[in-house]
Amino acid sequence: MGYLVSILYIVAFAMFIYGLSGLTGPKTAVRGNYIAAVGMLIAVVAVLIDVRDTDNWGLIVGGLLVGVVLGVPPALRTKMTAMPQLVALFNGVGGGTVALIAWAEFLDSDGFTTLADVPTAPVVVGSLFAAIVGSVSFWGSLVAFSKLQELLNKNLEKKFVAGAKAFQLANIVLAIVSIAIAVYIGVNADPANNPTSALWIAVLLVVAGLMGLFVVLPIGGADMPVVISLLNALTGLSAAAAGLALNNQAMIVAGMIVGASGTILTNLMAKAMNRSIPAIVFGSFGGDDAGAGAASATGGTVKATSASDAAIQMAYANQVIVVPGYGLAVAQAQHAVKEMASMLEERGVEVKYAIHPVAGRMPGHMNVLLAEADVEYDAMKEMDDINGEFSRTDVAIVIGANDVTNPAARNDPSSPIHGMPILNVDQARSVIVLKRSMSSGYAGIDNPLFFADTTSMLFGDAKKMVSEVTEELKAL
Fold first, then answer.
1. From 50, 55, 108, 403, active-site residue
2. Per-residue pLDDT tens for 212-238?
3. Which cellular component, as a GO term, is one annotated location (predicted)?
């Protein structure tokens, strides 16, 4: 049986890696997800075989059923607009599970003093690391979920962001206290000592949980996609540490894969915003109301347009580039956009889609939405591939995007987003921006693009306005 378990683990690990490699492209992403999921199923089966002599089958089966009941329905019913929140919540559950495992290991071994035939150091270090990082990930992810789901009061959230420095000082104190408690528990993890009171591990989890809350509360909405990715990496690392404590190869390998991939993704997203990870974690960017007075701040005027004028502009263009943002996701306008693009293509207009790395609320958000509407993968262009096309484009139509099209990132050294790579929408011959209002994006700053001479604003719900443009195209 031992050999069978090892073989199953190897197969599972291979499927994890192969499935993850499929996520590098939209054409293979769905298949990659299925492969990785089957790999996890095989790993679970291996664990069940490994613990076949246990007397706790009722708890194991009950836990599996609870996991299926709580996991599958939300995944099936959650709309794509809320997928980032679901990712944050599921990620938090993983971190919380790891923290509970560390707590259970402490209690089961009487404060790590009754470990039999097991190397003490890996269990102690792995458990305490998992307790701290898992608790930080759990509570931090709950805050991220609350922010994305807009459960937090907006005024209260702004106060949290404004008080970033106070939270930073508190986190330094909490980190020192967490390490001190962990060291105290570790030093007393000796059979010759009296067992450490179970109160200490509970205090450790509470202190680490407060740190998780205080880390994410002052981070603004503009940085939330990066925070989710970072918390995902932390959950992976804590799972690997728990696997080390339990001597479970599946948890070690899967945790390291999640931790490594999450770290790489976090770094890539931070670079896409031209910001460092410490600046994101310890900053207070994206929480003010700088965009409230857009017209007065820029000194420009807005030119409104109609669905009819927009249709005429695009109908007689050679190339149109669609720039989707979170507003498209909120309005569920992807199918309407696909219909509009099909009408344009029937008239001989070439239509492409420009995808910024941090458009939406998580990486790949726009790709998935557009793929859901049967937009060809080849028509979706990454920022580096499409930016050179804007200067040769007749019309760029921006649907619900804001910060990722802001030319201040390129032209204004005083802008907080200066240096952030953006889509060169302002270089198109004509720009049509679909927005409900002149409100700012997550960064909370003005967008000079809206006041440019070549820009026209089409106000209203994205789905409704795109459908109106489509009807006008049919009438031409």
1. 403
2. 999 999 887 667 778 888 999 999 999
3. plasma membrane
